[in-house]
Amino acid sequence: MSALDPYLPTIWFILVGVLFTGYAMLDGFDLGVGGLHLWVHKEEHRRLFLNSIGPVWDGNEVWLVTGGGALFAAFPAVYATIFSGFYLAFILLLFALIFRAVSIEFRSKHNSSAWRGFWDFSFSASSVVASILIGVAIGNLIEGIPLDGRQEYVGGFFNLLSPYAVFTGITTAALFAMHGGIYLALKTEGELHEIVRHWAWRTVLVFLGCYFIFNIWTLVANPHVREVLADRPYTAIIFIANVLLVLAIPRELYHRRDFRAFLFSCGSMLLLMALFACTMYPNLVYSSHAPADFNLNEFTLASNPWNLTINNSRSTDLTLRNMLVIAVIGVPIVLSYTVCIYWIFRGKVKLHHDSY
Amino acid sequence: MTVDFLARLQFAFTISFHYFYPPMSIGLSIILVLMESLWLKTKNPLYHNMARFWTRIFALTFAIGVPTGIVMEFEFGTNWSTYSRFVGDVFGSPLAAEGIFAFFLESGFLAILLFGWDRVGPKLHFFATCMVALGTHFSAIWIVVANSWMQTPAAYHLVRQSVKPDGTLLSLPNGTIVETPLPPDYIYVPGDRVRAVVDSFWGMVFNPSSMQRLTHVVLAAWLTGAFVVLSISAYYLLRRRHLEFAHASMKVALAFGCVTAGLQMLSADTTARGVAQHQPVKLAAMEGLWQTGPEAPLGIIGSASWVRDAQGNKIGEKTTEIHIPGMLSILVSGDFLHPFTAAKTIVPGLDQLPSDQFILERHPDATPAQLPALRAQYWPPVPAVYQVYHLMVGAGVAIVVLCAVGAFLWWRGLLWNTNLLVTRCYLALLVPSVLLPQIANQAGWYTAELGRQPWIVYNLLKTSDAFSQSVKANEIIVSIVGFGLVYVMLFILFIYLLNAKIHLGPTTMEQSSALPEKWDFAGQRGHIADA
Lengths: 356, 531
Description:
The complex is a heterodimer.
Chain A: H1 8-36, H2 43-53, H3 57-74, H4 76-85, H5 87-106, H6 113-143, H7 163-187, H8 190-221, H9 223-230, H10 234-254, H11 258-280, E1 283-285, E2 308-309, H12 317-344
Chain B: H1 3-18, H2 21-42, H3 45-79, H4 81-115, H5 122-151, E1 156-161, E2 179-181, E3 194-198, H6 201-205, H7 210-239, H8 243-278, H9 280-287, E4 298-308, E5 314-324, H10 327-333, H11 339-342, H12 356-362, H13 371-376, H14 382-411, H15 421-430, H16 435-450, E6 455-457, E7 461-462, H17 473-504
Antiparallel strand pairs in B: 1-2, 1-3, 4-5, 6-7
C-alpha cells in the first residue's frame, strides 16, 4: 500500500471530484426538477414532478455531504479555507437545501392552495438558489480568490459575486435545468410527458449557449487557465466531446430514446467535471493574492505559491491511505444498492397514497 | 459580541435544535424493525398498520434531522475552520466514514421504507427497514467516535508546519509543507502553526471514551423513540381511540423501553466512571466537588457558585446541596460490594484540578500565589455544568421510574383498564413524558460539551483558539438570525404536522388501500378486520 503514497494526493483529488460529480449527476436533476417546477401549473403535474424525485432525492443529496466530508478528511486546509471564506454563501446554500428538503416533504401535507403554492415556490426558488450558489463557488475556484500566506481567505462577501462567478452560477442552473428536464422526460408519461418534451430541448439550447459563453469567458479572463490548458492540449478533445454529447441530446429526445438522452446528460456532467479537473490540477484553489516576491506581471496564478494545492493542503499519507480503504470498501457497496434502489423505482412516476 | 462568543452561540443553537430529531429517528427505527418483524412472524395486519403509522412519524423526524444535520457538517468548516485545520487529519476521517457508511445507507433505503410498500415484497421491505435502522446507528457510531476523540484524544501526535519569518507557510519546491513532529509533552500555544496528525485509525476510533459514550448515546436514543410511541399510544388510550393499535404499540414500546432503561442505568454508571478516569475536571464540575479527598459526597440537588478573590478573579468554588455522604467515592471506585472501603476512594476536586504541574507547564513564571486564579482558567463553567448534569440525571431517573411503573401495571393487568384512576394517572403522565428523554439528551450533551470547556480538544486546543479567523462578527449575526427564523419555522411545522398525523391516526383496514397484493398472505384483502 505504501507504494501508492506518492499518488495518494492525486488519487484523492480524483475521488473528491468523483463524489462531487456524482452529486452533480444525481442531485443535479433534483435541483433541475425544482428549477422547472413552476413551469407546470396543474396540481397533478406538480405532484408528479415532486414524486419523480421523491424516493431518491435524499440519497442523492448525500453525495454532497460525503463529498464535503471527504474534502475535510483528505484536504482539510481547503475545507477550512473555503467553508469559512465563502461563509455567507455557504450559509445561504444551507438555507436553500433546508427549504428544498422541507418543501418536498411538507408541500402536499395540507389541502390549501395557499399552502401548496407557497411550498411550490419555495421548492423552485431554493433549487435555483442552490444551483446558482454551487456554480458561483466553482467560478470563484477557477478565477482565484484572495488568500494570504496562512491559507486564510482575506476577501469579503461581494468578492465572491464577480460577474464571471455569477455567470458560472447561471450556467450551472441551466445545466441542472437541462438535466432535470431530461430526467422528467424519462419519468413522465402522457400529457405531462409531451409538455416536458416540448420544452426540454429548449433547456438544452439555453445550456449550450451558456456553455459556449462560459468557456470563452473562462479562457479570455483567466491567463492562468490559458497557461495550464496550453500544457494540456487534450482538454480541447474533452471540450469538443462534451459539445457533441450535448448536441446529441435533442436528437435522442426526438427519437424518444429518453434514457439515452439522460445517459448523455450524465456523460456531459462527467466531461464537465473532467474539464474542471484539467483546469485546476494540481491546484484546488487559485489565490488571486500572491507573496511580495511573486511577480504577477511575469507569472500567472498557475504557479502562485499561495494557491491551495493537493500538496500543501493535504492530510498525511496515513490518513489518505486509511480513507482510501474506506472508499474502496464503501463506494462499491453504495453504488450497488443505489443502482438496485433506482431499479426498484424504475419506470414512469405514478401517484399513489404514499406519494408526496 | 465577539466572533468567539457568536461562533459558540451559533454552534450551540444549531446542534441543540438538530439533536431533537436523530434520537427520535434512531429509537423509532428499532421500533419499526420490531413491529415489522412481528408482522412477518404473526401475519396479523394490525402490526402492518402499526408499521405504516409509526413509519410516517419516523419520516417526519428524519425529514428535519437531515437538513439540520447537513448544517452541522458544514459548520465545522464555516465557523470553526481553525479547529478544522488543527484536527482535520484525525477528525475528518470519521466524518467522511459517516457519509460513506451511514448517510448513504439510511437515505438510500429510506426510499424503499417510505415508498416501497407497494413495490417490493414484505421481506425486502423489512430488509430496507433494517438497513435504515443500521444506517442511523452507523451515523451515531461515527459522530460519537469523532466527538469522543475531542474529549479523550488518542492515537495522534502534533507536528509543526514550517513558516517563514513573516508567518506565511513555507513550502518545498514541489509544494509540500514540511512538518516536524513534536514531542508528546509539547504544549500548544496560540499562534503556533501546529496540527494534530493521526497515528492509528483504530486507535482514534477506539479512544478511551468512545465505546462507553456511544453505548450511552444509543440507549438514550432508544428511550427517546420508545417514549414517542408511549406518549402517542397513551394519548389514544385516554381518548379511547384506536384501542387495539394503541395497546399493541404500547406493549412494544414499553418492553423496549424497560429493557433499555435498565441497560441505560448500567451505561450511565460506566460512562461517568470513564469521565472520572479520563476527564477528572469535568467530573469535579458535574458534581460541584471542590475538596479533593475521600468520602466525596453525591449531590442530589443544589447549586454551585464561584468563590472570587478581592480583585474579582475566580479562585475557588463552593457547592450548596442535598447530598449522600461518601456516595461519589463509592461510585467512582465502582466497588459496590465493599461500600465502606470504596468510600475511602479519593476523588480529586477542583482545588487540585488541573494539577500544579499542569499549570506550571503552561505558565512557567507563575508564583504559588497566582496558582489558584490560573487554575480557575482551566475550569469549565461549573455552576452551569452542575445544573445540566443534575437535570440529566433527574430526567433519567424519571424515565426509569416511569418504565418501572408501566412494567408493574402491565404485569398486574392494570395497564389496559382506563377505568382505573391509577392507570389514567399513569397514562396522563406518559403523554408529556415524551419530553423527558429530550431533556435528558440535551442536558447530557450540554454536560459533555460545557464540561469540556475551556477546551475544544481536551487539554490540547482551547475553544477560544479554534474559531474561524476570516469570518466577521456581523456575518455570524446574520447567520444566527437566519437560523433562528428558519428553525423556529421548522419547529412550528414539525409540531403542526406531527399533530396532524396523530389526529389522523393509523388507518383502519377499510380506510387504507389495504395490504398491497404481494403482502396479502392470507387473502385478507376485502375482509373487514378490526383495527
